[in-house]
Automatic annotation (TrEMBL):
In the C-terminal section; belongs to the NAD synthetase family. Belongs to the NAD synthetase family. It catalyses: deamido-NAD(+) + L-glutamine + ATP + H2O = L-glutamate + AMP + diphosphate + NAD(+) + H(+). PROSITE patterns: CN_HYDROLASE. Pathway: Cofactor biosynthesis; NAD(+) biosynthesis; NAD(+) from deamido-NAD(+) (L-Gln route): step 1/1. GO terms for molecular function: NAD+ synthase activity. This is Glutamine-dependent NAD(+) synthetase. The gene is nadE. Residues 5-303 form the CN hydrolase domain. SUPFAM superfamilies: Adenine nucleotide alpha hydrolases-like (SSF52402), Carbon-nitrogen hydrolase (SSF56317). Keywords: ATP-binding, Ligase, NAD, Nucleotide-binding. Its EC number is 6.3.5.1. It comes from Maribacter aquimaris. It holds the Pfam family NAD_synthase. It comes from the Bacteria.
Length: 645
């Protein structure tokens, strides 16, 4: 029967906090769908106001504003059925039914309407409003805070003493004299494997199919992460296997950028239709872009193989789109001023800015002191020329002397470390932030994930800025992305090759090693390559502890677990147990001691499964060495060398 329905998936750019813009976009898509004789058009989760709105969801007036657009969409539903995500605030005076925080009960809901009225269910329950279905499974991990704001359908069932199946019923979509049952889900309802009741997954899809749904539609606001589409394919296959019988499954996701104040989160779409075997068969061909996918009687439901992803290419696209769509956060026409040190990080950020906004929107500033070499100054100038951006040279040595003089009027000399910080603060606070104000431009934080983890930057200096484009890339990923941009994006050398190491992070004599250039002969203290993989392990979604790393060392499989070669361990002398311990303690202790810096960092564009910002939530705590750590340390101290097994 559902094969007679023409269904459209409105993969749209959802702009958080701009409901008028979003609804106008929806109305345009609805009109296009009507022109193509679509019966049902489906939009993403929370597409009216955005999904990541923070505590705006606690403001009644804000929620009322979002709900006020339902009337416009209801009027637009003449001659078509519409399903979309929006907040629903339960203003009922029948009994006391608050949210868990005592405020008005709110739902992350799907609205279903057709021909100017809210859609009927196969079986109405007298509890839920007409045409409105709350989300059942509320994610409460990473940067998701659904449980902070919304009441789940599962909790509604508990409140009213009902079985969940009594509240999950397909909506009836009319076509001619037929009324076709369509099951509606919201995002996490698909990822049900880890939500349990009575020892079984809370499988919303299975309940809806058993209630008569002839197709399922999942409305999502699912952020991009590497290989997310493949992971979703596996979950739909799991639903097929766990449900017994299955039906066509329509998945619609948003594109664009949203944020939670500390992370910039990108959405790549990936809208997909699955057949009765749970195989992907119709894929959106517009990743990161809007797409109106119309599935009619001519559509093929034969399985399709999803293309394999390329990690660096996808992370490049995430940052590129994160920057390009940061207009939502920074205004319609952002310009940038960027400190160009001549190093690899600032070179990559400047290139990304030019790609996202154009060369006329970026000004590079080199701020040399007595410690900056001709090599780095030359590299900064070469990059600016390659990119075609405006380039300023503003020496800071006189300011360093002036600041040093003032800071020593108390008769106490500044240490070498103090003098390093003075230089960094002059560059960040005195020059970049003031140029930013002078030009009405934004300035960027150019730190990578390893530097952010170790606090290898100066508060009120190079820790400042409006956005951190590469803050979720390890140093190895920074180098890989530079190669990708040179080779694949431009097809020529834009980022100077003298900044790029070999696979073991070795540099030739003519090359430039990573350095802050705040004192003579300074090089960064990190063991790049090795520390990059170590950081990936300890910040992964399934985080590894220092005890895990030590256990792997004892077992002789550390290199395999981290995904590095033995040559990388030899390059950094990690095969020596004493050096391994010294370095590991320094690495972990330094990360914990610099939480106070990270909580002050600018927003970071998310590219991994666990980013600093709001994805990793940290308390400022002292370093704790566990009993297991002490026992493992004693064992490693007795080892002569790292022995593979």
């Amino acid at each position: 029967m559902t094969d007679t329905l023409t269904i459209a998936l409105g993969q749209m750019d959802v702009v958080p906090g701009r409901p008028r813009l979003n609804v106008d976009n929806m109305l345009r898509m609805i009109q296009k769908a009507k022109e193509q004789s679509v019966d049902l058009i489906c939009f993403p989760e929370m597409c009216v106001g955005g999904y990541l709105l923070g505590d705006k969801f606690l403001e009644d007036a804000y929620c009322e504003e979002l709900m006020s657009y339902n009337e416009e969409l209801l009027a637009a539903s003449n001659d078509i059925a519409i399903a979309y995500g929006n907040i629903y605030v339960n203003g009922s005076t029948e009994g006391h039914h608050p949210n868990k925080d005592g405020r008005s009960r709110k739902y992350n809901a799907v609205y279903v309407m057709q021909n100017g009225t809210y859609a009927d269910r196969v079986q109405e329950n007298g509890i839920l409003p007409m045409g409105v279905q709350p989300k059942t499974l509320l994610p409460n991990y990473r940067f998701f805070d659904d449980e902070r704001y919304f009441f789940s359908l599962f909790d509604v069932a508990i409140d009213y003493g009902k079985d969940l199946s009594e509240l999950l019923s397909p909506f009836l979509i009319s076509k001619g004299d037929q009324r076709i049952p369509i099951g509606m889900e919201l995002c996490e309802d698909l990822w049900c494997h880890d939500y349990r009741a009575d020892g079984e997954p809370i499988n919303i899809t299975k309940i809806l199919i058993e209630a008569g749904a002839e197709s399922i539609v999942n409305l999502s606001a699912s952020p991009w992460t590497f290989m997310k589409n493949n992971a979703r394919d596996r979950r739909v296959k799991y639903l097929r296997e766990q449900s017994g019988s299955f039906v066509k499954y329509y998945y619609v996701n948003c594109v664009g950028v949203q944020n939670n104040g500390k992370n910039v989160i990108t959405f790549d779409g990936g809208s997909t239709v699955y057949n009765e075997e749970g195989d992907p068969c119709i894929l959106s061909e517009k990743g990161w872009e809007e797409d109106l996918m119309v599935i009619d009687e001519k559509a093929s439901f034969l399985p399709k193989k999803r293309p394999m992803g390329n990690t660096i290419r996808e992370k490049f696209l995430a940052i590129f789109n994160g920057l390009k769509n940061s207009r939502n956060m920074l205004g319609d026409d952002p310009h940038f001023v960027i400190g160009l040190s001549g190093g690899i990080d600032s070179s990559l950020v400047a290139t990304l800015l030019v790609l996202a906004f154009g060369k006329e929107k970026v000004v590079g500033v080199n701020m040399p002191s007595q410690y900056n070499s001709d090599k780095t100054k030359g590299a900064a100038k070469a990059l600016a020329e390659n990119l075609g951006i405006e380039y300023l040279i503003l020496p800071i040595e006189d300011m360093v002397k002036s600041n040093t003089h003032i800071l020593q009027l108390d008769g106490k000399p500044l240490s070498e470390f103090n003098l390093e910080n003075v230089q960094a603060k002059i560059r960040g606070a005195s020059i970049l932030s003031n140029l930013s104000a002078k030009y009405r431009y934004f300035f960027t934080n150019n730190g990578n994930k390893v530097e952010i983890a170790l606090g290898y930057a100066t508060l009120y200096g190079d820790w400042g800025g409006a956005i951190t484009p590469i803050g979720d890339l390890t140093k190895t990923e920074v180098a890989d992305m530079c190669h990708y941009i040179n080779d694949e994006v431009f097809g020529k050398e834009i980022i100077p090759e003298l900044l790029l190491p070999d696979a073991l992070w070795r540099f030739g004599e003519a090359q430039i090693q990573p350095t802050a250039e705040l004192k003579s002969n300074q090089v960064d203290p990190m063991k790049f390559g090795y520390h990059c993989k170590l950081l990936e392990g300890i910040t992964n979604f399934r985080k590894k502890s220092i005890e895990d790393i030590m256990t792997w060392y004892v077992e002789g499989n550390l290199h395999e677990k981290l995904g590095i070669g033995l040559d990388m361990m030899l390059r950094w002398h990690i095969d020596d147990p004493k050096e391994f311990l010294r370095d590991l303690e320094w690495f972990y202790d330094t990360i914990q001691k610099n939480v106070f810096k990270r909580v002050q960092s600018p927003p970071i564009i998310l590219t991994s499964k666990s980013s600093y910002g709001y994805d990793i939530r940290e308390s400022i705590l002292p370093v704790l060495k566990t009993k297991k750590f002490k026992a493992l340390k004693e064992k490693i101290m007795t080892m002569d060398t790292y022995m593979t097994k």
